[in-house]
């Protein structure tokens, strides 16, 4: 048995020589004759094209044998308030989180680490945002997803930036990225456009104890997102409940007849109450309106009967008025004919015309005079 063994190291390889579990030296590419008489000889080979010196004891080896590794390995270590952006030949390939130690083989690629202090300024710069969030190969990688919080605020919206549970900033529309290390970050969006709200199917008793089902519709707009964010957990639910209360309060103080006669008064009562309350929480109520007032079945039937009786009474009144007017006209006509024989005679001829228009044949006795004088008479009298 030979007292040595031959080890071949490829051009893309470096090897660490250990004897009796103690580091001896680094083996460069080529053929090496290793004496094994000392016993317990171990060789660890590394492919340096992977760039990263992946050894669990790398930090210890470099600390205890720094001079031996100085020409071969470059080290990078992040503090607790730093992150590192690791570039290989000018391309961003990895993110080093705070406290990370990295060792990389020299001489294969041009690599560097850009350090970013995130102790105070934890927002990504536009350059970093473009690299890490907008279509870069790293943008959907696990290391990026765990390192940054990315959000886009749409037009006519604002973002509520909360850091460690505290509201820090109101963000206008745009895209934003934040480092998540050492802090908890969230962004909630608020819609600043005019929005609608529906309060439907509310069963409410009027002042005269009639049960109604009412549907209410309205529109509102957030005017102070800071107040909405800090004072309200759910602004739409808050506004819905307030409208419910104002509607019940307004309906309960009016009778059914009053509500049916003037729905606008109900709208005014609700709007007056809700405007001031909503303004305290940064919300402007633009409009409020009752869409439907639905009566129960029996009350609807009673009201239909009332309306029918009213219309029938109005019809009878009009009929009597017309009959009275007609009788008065007839009376005036009779008085005129009484004092004017010629007018009476014209009326008789008019009646004769209407009679002859309805029959085919007339038998006349006494000649033309009988036709003119005896056939039609409106009152007793002697023929002239």
From TrEMBL:
Annotated ranges, domain Band: 147-307
Alphabetical list of Gene3D superfamilies matching this protein: 6.10.250.2090, Band 7 domain
Membrane topology: Single-pass membrane protein
A UniProt-annotated Pfam family: Band_7
SMART domains: PHB
Subcellular locations according to the entry: Membrane
Family: Belongs to the band 7/mec-2 family.
The protein's name: Slipin family protein
